[in-house]
Amino acid sequence: MAISDTQIDKLRARELERFIANRPRSTALWQQAQKYMPNGVPMAWMVQLYDHPPMFVKSGDGAYFVDVDGHRYLDMNLADTSMPFGYAEPQLTAAASEQMARGSQFMLPNEDSIAVAEQLSSRFGLPKWQFTLAGSSANTEAIRIARAITGRSDILMFAGKYHGMIDDTLVAEDGGERILEGAGISEDVKKHAHIVQFNDLDAVERSLKNHDIACVITEPALTNVGVIQPESNFHTALRELTRTHGTLLIIDEAHTNVCAFGGLSNEWKLDPDILTLCKAIGGSVAIGAYGMTEDVASILESQSDSELPSFATTAVVATGGTLFGNALSMATARCTLERVMTQQAHQRANDVGGRLADGIQNKIEAHGLPWSTIRFYCRSGYFFAPDLPANARQMQASENLPLRQLIRLYLANRGVWEAIYSASPAVGFRTTANDVDFYCEAFDNCLAGLVRI
Ligand SMILES: Cc1ncc(COP(=O)(O)O)c(C=O)c1O
What we know:
single chain; 453 residues; alpha/beta
């Protein structure tokens, strides 16, 4: 059974009216905020995500948060995977408060940084670590290091990727043409960015052979276009190809680190030269990090043997930032890794994630929809086609943005928040089986509402 555009438009109009009518305080704050912030929000682009006014949040606890109008939401996006431990996690709250009381930023290392690097090293299997404040800055430094080591400028990425707000990676391919994914980026960036489809190893090989590629950067599975999983030999072959052609392999685990203890690099035994992280490992405080092999790290270590560095030098890799590795983010990261993101916590979330995938699949089948279900650790979801896509091109062929937006809006009106439809739903360490059933019931009602209208 197919759902028509008319059905979507009709239900959407009704849900939009309901959403706005029930949020007078958020709407008033939004109007007030427009005086001080473009689009009335701290990050102007966020309003493009939604076809309704943004909600203003009051507080959160566990898997739920409350908006200023008093609505309670089950967060099924985990604030884009940054909060798998839930809101106001007691151990993290204590770690942050204690560190604030001792001083949160010194621009000097403290003992926590050693504990965090040690934890990351044993989980993710790479010996040397550096810290930043976001995934974007971790990837920026990783790409610079790859260029410095190889002496090459070009990078290879997979269509449908997102690696942060970095000029170098904000390039897409459209009908064989490279296009910039935003205004304000130099046209020159396009020259150095190569895009191929995920799982297309022949295209990877052609690119590596024909161009001087410094690095391939990829997530273990693409997670910003729903979830697109690698075929069985993809990562082994990718690693072999990059080695053969002297190209570094950067694995971006910004999102996937929540899938398993040590991320998917540990789970799938990946072998990157550089691995980048952010979000969850900071325990709700801003963080970015990257791990490297000894060989890669030596490009940074050589700086300490040189003459006293001057700002004019071009020999050292450009890395660093005033608040990178600050004491607060090290304290919450240490607590997260030592006490919160445990093997058991991941296992529990993945079990609940399995229940979510089962529930979604049952509802889709019950309504006779020709859709496929994503089953991916703590993360689930669905595509509007009977088969799971192998790459972004296949995914886009069946994608229906108005339908995604409608489902998100309908769920918000029933107390379920899926912030980014392309990256949801997911469960965290404090999401229960009952929460998942609540989600599935709302999803079921949405599909029933669509069919009926
Ligand atoms: C795969 C991936 N890499 C990097 C980033 C950027 O991380 P940040 O927002 O911390 O800069 C994101 C953000 O969602 C991401 O999904």
